[in-house]
């Protein structure tokens, strides 16, 4: 999936947020990039490209551990998934895919197609029971704030959780 020098460590998000809380007297924290990439393989099937369950697992688990840090008092005010679209990465160029949406660079059309992770994240933002221990409060401009849910709604820790079964994209569309 990814070069062996990079690993997904969702619990690391909790650890770094808790460290910042202790070391810097709990400042407001905005997580501006958190995601999981895979290597672009032009011989992959359409189904393999769009059914990115590994990305859903990583994001859900990251949010789970972030919610634990928030429950411990960390002042987390924002979270942004990296990235909305597959794009150019400075180190890997167009060979990596971080996006919730696949971009077709092959035929030159640059058409965008939602991956499973885009559907999951949309549902997480719109359905309070779908997420990872976090309630999303919305106003007319979009997401306003995050609040913790009760502890019994947390999914089990990454990577062995089975709380939400991933739907095949062919069943969604």
Automatic annotation (TrEMBL):
Pfam families in the cross-refs? Glyco_hydro_1
Which InterPro entries did the record assign?
Answer: GH (IPR017853), Glyco_hydro_1 (IPR001360), Glyco_hydro_1_AS (IPR018120)
> Which biological process annotations from GO are given for this protein?
carbohydrate metabolic process
- Please list where the region (Disordered) is annotated: 153-173
- Entries under Gene3D superfamilies matching the protein: Glycosidases
Q: Where is the active site?
A: 33
Q: Which GO terms describe its molecular function?
A: beta-glucosidase activity
Task: List the SUPFAM superfamilies hit by this protein, alphabetically.
Answer: (Trans)glycosidases
Family membership: Belongs to the glycosyl hydrolase 1 family.
State what protein this is by name.
Beta-glucosidase
Q: What organism does this protein naturally occur in?
A: Picea sitchensis (Sitka spruce)
């Amino acid at each position: 999936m990814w070069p062996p020098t990079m690993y997904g460590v969702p619990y690391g998000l909790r650890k770094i947020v808790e460290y910042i809380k202790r070391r810097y007297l709990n400042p407001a924290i905005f997580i501006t990039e958190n995601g999981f990439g895979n290597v672009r393989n032009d011989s992959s099937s359409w189904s393999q490209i769009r059914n990115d369950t590994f990305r859903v697992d990583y994001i859900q688990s990251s949010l789970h551990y972030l919610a634990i840090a928030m429950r411990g008092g960390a002042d987390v005010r924002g979270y942004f998934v990296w990235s909305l679209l597959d794009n150019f990465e400075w180190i890997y160029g167009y060979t990596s895919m971080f996006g919730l949406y696949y971009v077709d660079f092959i035929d030159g059309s640059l058409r965008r197609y939602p991956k499973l992770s885009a559907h999951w994240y949309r549902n997480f933002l719109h359905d309070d029971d779908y997420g990872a221990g976090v309630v999303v409060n919305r106003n007319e401009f979009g997401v306003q704030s995050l609040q913790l849910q009760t502890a019994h709604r947390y999914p089990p820790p990454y990577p062995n959780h089975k709380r939400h079964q991933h739907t095949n994209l062919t069943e969604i569309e």
